[in-house]
Specification:
The chain is of the alpha+beta class and 97 residues long. It has a four-stranded antiparallel β-sheet, covered by helices on one side. The chain is globular.
Length: 97
């Protein structure tokens, strides 16, 4: 059975009135920094994509990012890890919130 991305899952649940914190889906470190400016610091950066479950256990979440440099570094690190996951997953993005 396929797993929806976190962003797609939240979009589905929003249709039923479930609220979530503000977040953005971005493709790269520059987008992550822009998203962090929009949602505010500190923030969290996670790898997001169909089939990516159990992100915390797999080391695909960065918490408590307090400045733009740490957001950019976390995004670059997760994008590097995404290259290893890309064969198993069709769509990889980052979720900042």
């Amino acid at each position: 059975m396929a797993t929806l991305s976190e962003a797609a899952s939240k979009e589905l649940l929003r249709g039923y009135g479930v609220p979530f914190a503000d977040e953005r889906v971005v493709a790269d470190a520059a987008g992550a920094v822009d998203a962090a400016r929009a949602v505010g610091l500190p923030c969290v950066v996670k790898l997001n994509g169909d089939g990516i479950a159990h992100k915390t256990e797999r080391g695909l979440v960065r918490l408590g990012l307090r400045d733009e440099a740490s957001v950019a570094a976390a995004a670059e690190e997760l994008n590097a890890q995404a290259l290893a996951l890309k064969e198993a997953v069709a769509s990889l993005e980052q979720l900042v919130g």
